[in-house]
């Protein structure tokens, strides 16, 4: 009687562990799919792939401009902000080019190097832009990214999805997938050992 109860409890534990392993594998596959349709296209679409050194030539803050998100944007998404323009000397080619914060900045407003997030307090936006401008004046040389193919003549300060960020995004689903497969293998080994013991 006690043996039957132990066997039943063992089978229930194996079933739960097997369901856990399969659930982990399924969740990891969903995460892979989500990363593949969101992060990977932005990473592959970016042409600013080569790192070089940029030297600041001039930093200007123009009058307030409107964020021209004209592609299906509504009026409440358009807000005025000081337009920061940073021109740098590209070490790789020696050209004078405009610097943008990220790939997104060029899409939002190609006239400004930095587009702040929408804030209700215009003083905070102005203070942030002035702080960024003073940092560029203070640190004249810094790493930046340019397009080696020459399709884009401008440069960006940082990539939205660098290779390290892409690897980090794939790290968690990979660990979950490996853990799920390991649980399934251990359950199958346990079942095989149990059947072998019962046969003997």
Automatic annotation (TrEMBL):
It is a multi-pass membrane protein. It is found in: Membrane. PROSITE patterns: PROKAR_LIPOPROTEIN. Pfam families: CaKB (PF03185). GO terms for biological process: detection of calcium ion. One of its GO terms (molecular function) is calcium-activated potassium channel activity. Keywords: Glycoprotein, Ion channel, Ion transport, Membrane, Transmembrane, Transmembrane helix, Transport. Its main location: membrane. GO terms for cellular component: voltage-gated potassium channel complex. The chain crosses the membrane at residues 20-43, 166-187. The keyword Cell membrane does not apply. Belongs to the KCNMB (TC 8.A.14.1) family. KCNMB1 subfamily. This is KCMB1 protein. It comes from Syrrhaptes paradoxus. The lineage of its organism: Eukaryota, Metazoa, Chordata, Craniata, Vertebrata.
